[in-house]
Amino acid sequence: MYYADDVVEEVRSRNDIVDVVSGYVKLQKKGSSYFGLCPFHHEKSPSFSVSPNKQMYYCFGCGAGGNVITFLMEYENYTFPEALKVLADRAGIELPKQEMSKEARAQADLKMTLLEINKLAANYFHYQLKQPQGRAGYEYLSKRCLSDDTIRHFGLGYSNKTSNDLYRYLKGKGYGDSILKESGLFTISERGTWDKFWNRVMFPIMDTNNRVIGFGGRVMGEGEPKYLNSPETKLFDKSRNLYGLNFARSTREKYFLICEGYMDVIAMHQAGFTNAVASLGTAFTTQHASLLKRYTSQVVLTYDSDDAGVKAALRAIPILKEVGISCKVLNMKPYKDPDEFIKNLGADAFRKRIDEAKNSFLFEIDILKRGYDLEDPEQKTNFHTAVAKKLLEFPDALERDNYIQAVSREQFINYQDLKQLVSRTAARLGPAWAETRQTAGYRGYTDSGGPSLAAVGAGERGAREETLYEQRGSLAAGGRTRGPGQRKREKDDGAKQSQRLLLTWLIEDPRLFDKIQGIITPDDFKDELYHTVAQMVFDGHAAGNLSPAGILNHFINDETQYKEAAALFNASLKDSLGSEEQKKAFSETVIKVRKNSLDEASRTAADIGQLQEIIKAQSALKTLHISFD
Q: β-strand 33-36 against 28-30: which pairing, if any?
């Protein structure tokens, strides 16, 4: 649904962000802003700021930021039209009726039809489960100790042994082959048509609005694959959906349980653990983690206790950390999975295991230890060295020391000896090593140069870790070796940082526009996003209605740009430009931005006359003085 910019801006401006956010977060005024505990990540000290002047919020802990519209989208998991509608109703604004384009209407109609087909299919499968032909499926679920209430709650069903059973049913409902093929439920070719799912127990997969978007099926008897999921469709993307999230999102628990499969989720929900979810036949992804971040800042991994489960946990841990989710790992032994554990020891014992779940970093250390024979003095020394390297993942000295203490207790290593080893290792490898290792998602190497057991979770980060591995030699020497490519990246990053800093200053203190008049224009911001923002900021200042919250509306549909723009509008300037040091820093930043702009222009000059003008402007920069009098 499309709404004109002026409509969106009217709804936003008529809803005071402090009033709206106060309905969700307890705020306390400090200076010109309000502060509270961030609703988007777990914290003990308030770092969530709401600015009535900017009509924006920003968390200095996790980086979440935006305006009143995006706050509702993030907190309530609303789409943009849904959030706008709620705020419009709150302000007594009637949104105009919008006509979709022909293409948009066709896409919307297609999705609605696919949802109808999926709903009919789910009902059909559920009906078949209680019929004579569904006996095998029902007996399977009964043997797994699922009650009829649980079967009904999750909409479980059965696909008959007849290979075109569902196809004939939906054809009878009037659906044509072209739309049925789009559903992902059928294979339609010149050789014939048949159902993708047959002789399987069926698990409807629902989105957070309880709409069926796909299916999983477990084969009865012998057959491959054992579990089969719907293919990617207009509705279903397995890397962006989690099984059970439609129920778990309303849990009262502060954490989520992540497990491997459908049956684990269902068994845990039946036992009262309604905060359990699972990925859908695929490895845990960054998109899964980002989806979870909307609802929780803490998870407990309950993967199977076998080698595959350990590897899955090691892959998931860095992905969860990357989005700011705290993670623990549950010990399932002597049982393989949550379903088996609960059947044998019960829900109370399982809850106790949750309370005893291990910190994810300490779990990684335990797994790392498996690769060494601690009875061998040399290997024991190598293990301690590997632990010291891993502890360098923590850039904050206090946090790192807390983990040194924890590891020394867990692994029976003398605290002072381990602390000194960490310090010596840091000095030997150089300061760039830990930083690059953390950025690349590094998860440990053995001293022989190969990946340790803790590195098995490379997955999506594989390419980045290969780059790190190649750089390891130079970093071990102190990080002093820099090739031409690296120097260029550093220069580009420096130019971008100067543009970002200058924009932040201008947004924070519009009086600074007078200081740069005739020196800086929006065209001097060469980064594409910063140029777009700069043009809006300059135009807003010229018109006398500079509105950071209004500008942010333009980036709602692009999550990456939105977050970067939100950070621009909410960066905290520790000191005002009253001090001489800050005045000097501002002047130097202006010169850097202008110089970078002129340097880039010189490389693309159209003729000698234009190049001479650029050289003249570059020369003038050497004597440029910005007055603050």
A: antiparallel
| Six-digit token string for 429 | 């490898």
Q: Which CATH class is domain 5-91?
A: alpha beta
Q: In this predicted structure, what is the pLDDT of residue 529?
A: 85
3-state secondary structure 412-476: CCCHHHHHHHHHHHHHHHCHHHHHHHHHCCCCCECCCCCECHHHCCCHHHHHHHHHHHHHHHHHH
CA–CA gap between residue 72 and residue 89 (Å, rounded): 13
Reading the block at residue 602, the tokens are 């010189």
The residues near 11 (Cβ < 8 Å, ≥ 6 apart) are 69, 84, 87, 88, 91, 93, 95
- Per DSSP, 302 falls in state -
Query: What stretch(es) of the chain map to CATH 3.90.980.10?
Result: 103-236
Listed in order, the ranges of the chain carrying CATH 3.40.1360.10 are 242-356
Provide DSSP, 322-389.
HTT-EEEE---TTSSSHHHHHHHH-HHHHHHHHHTPEEHHHHHHHHHHTTS-TTSHHHHHHHHHHHHH
Please check the confidence at residue 482 and state whether its pLDDT lies above 70: no
Give the separation between CA 215 and CA 212, rounded to whole angstroms. 8
Q: Is the pLDDT of residue 200 over 70?
A: yes
CB atoms within 10 A of CB 492: 13
Position 403 scores a pLDDT of 95
Residue in the structure block whose two tokens are 């989005």: 323
Distance of CA 530 to the CA centre of its chain: 23
- The boundaries of every CATH 3.90.580.10 domain in the chain are 5-91
Angle 397-411/415-429 helices, nearest 10 degrees? 130
Reported confidence tier of residue 146, pLDDT bands at 50, 70, 90? very high
Question: Do residues 160 and 133 make contact, with C-beta atoms less than 8 angstroms apart?
Answer: yes
The CATH 1.10.860 domain(s) of the chain lie at: 490-621
The CATH number given to 490-621 is 1.10.860
* Whether 397 contacts 443, CB under 8 Å: no
For residue 20, what pLDDT is reported? 93
- How many angstroms separate the CA atoms of 321 and 273, rounded? 23
If pLDDT is split at 50, 70 and 90, which confidence band does 432 have? low
Give the chain's length. 629
User: What pLDDT is recorded for position 462?
Assistant: 33
DSSP string over 172-227: HTT--HHHHHHTTSEEEETTEEEES--SEEEEEEE-TTS-EEEEEEEESSS-SSSE
For helices 377-391 and 397-411, angle between their N-to-C axes, nearest 10 degrees: 150
How confident is the model over 409-431, as a mean pLDDT? 91
pTM greater than 0.70 (yes/no)? no
Could you report the per-residue pLDDT of 31-81, keeping only the tens digit for each?
888 999 888 777 778 888 898 888 888 888 877 888 898 888 878 767 778
Structure tokens at 286: 């960054």
Residue 611: count other Cβ atoms within 10 Å of its Cβ. Answer: 15
Q: Residue 388's closest CA among 422, 362, 364? A: 422
CA pair distance 541, 535, nearest whole angstrom:
10
Q: Is 111 in a helix, a strand, or coil?
A: helix
What CATH number has the domain spanning 103-236? 3.90.980.10
Tokens of 179: 């739309």
**Fold of the domain spanning 242-356:** Dna Topoisomerase Vi A Subunit; Chain: A, domain 2 (3.40.1360)
pLDDT of residue 326: 93
DSSP single-letter state for residue 237 = -
**Packing angle of the helix pair 165-172, 102-129 (nearest 10 deg):** 120
